[in-house]
Amino acid sequence: MKKISIIVPFMNEEPNIKSLTENLAKYCLVHLSCTYEVLFVDDGSTDNSYRVLAEASHLGYSYKLIKLAKNFGAHAALRAGVLNATGDYITFVYADLQDPLELIDRLFVLNENGASIAWAARNNPPTGVVEKMFSKAYANLMKAFVNKNYPSKGFDVVMFNKNVQTELNNNVESNSSIFLQILNLGFKQEFIDYEKKQRQEGKSKWTIAKKVKLLIDSFVAFSFAPIRFVSIIGILMFVIGLVLTTYIICRKLIYNDLVSGWAGLSTILFLGFGITNISLGIIAEYLWRTLDASRKRPVFIIEEIIEVDSENSH
Q1: Which of 7, 78, 169, 176 has the fewest CB neighbours in a 10 Å radius?
Q2: pLDDT digit string, tens, across residues 196-216
Q3: Which homologous superfamily is 3-222+298-308 in?
Q4: Does the model's pTM come out above 0.85?
Q5: pLDDT tens per residue, range 39-73
Q6: What's the CA gap between 156 and 189, in Å, rounded?
Q7: Minimal CA–CA distance to 86: which of 21, 4, 8?
Q8: Phi then psi for 205, rounded to 5 degrees?
Q9: Where are the beta strands (DSSP E) in the chain?
């Protein structure tokens, strides 16, 4: 009988814990074709989520409570779960249960039929104007510059086998996207569609600042497009400057009617220095990440692990 490891990262999800454990129990007690291991990864919660989980009833599955030393980010929490998973297949579930647990069945079938990686891509876009705009822009950029197979409406759920787990554990990347890393591994991949539900309790921790960081991390970690963009801008500015200089010299020699002015000079200076600073900022992002990787600081630190083999697991 195959074993599935379900990784649940969470931070300050106390209102959702009861519903989460109840739904996991219902699912695991009904679906007897596999055994289940659930890894709850606490990404630096400041509420009672960890304590409530430790005291909750866990039926139908064995489980591990993994407490990180601080908030390292959702992707680092997922990596901590992957490192400690022991199943034949590994998948991600989130504490707000916006992604139906029935996806596990559908993804499992794809894995059993030969796919090393099975993705669940959203059919419906996120709610909210800002979320929709960011999601669409991010997906288009990833599709154009990182991987053409990136779904147009994004994904949050994946199931993969132990070969993929080994690669992830051997290459734990900081300031990176675990989803793009999996997508770029090259193993056989399959996709299904699903409808993402609305959050019922609590507030999303997916802030604008975290979205912007993910966008920067995704580009710097998986694409040379920003560096190429800097090179192209530099060439264009050089060509424009060369043409403008030639025009000014010719105009001066032929007509001698050009009047010098501070407005034009200031515009050129602001434009030039602005482009230069943007270019230096992009290059600095790459240099900082190179320095950060060379330090070999841990992507996450596990403070505590509680492991329980449930008597009601199968």
Answers
A1: 169
A2: 886 656 566 556 676 677 777
A3: Spore Coat Polysaccharide Biosynthesis Protein SpsA; Chain A (3.90.550.10)
A4: no
A5: 999 999 999 999 999 999 899 999 999 999 999 99
A6: 15
A7: 4
A8: -95, 5
A9: 3-10, 35-42, 62-68, 89-92, 117-122, 155-161, 189-194, 302-308
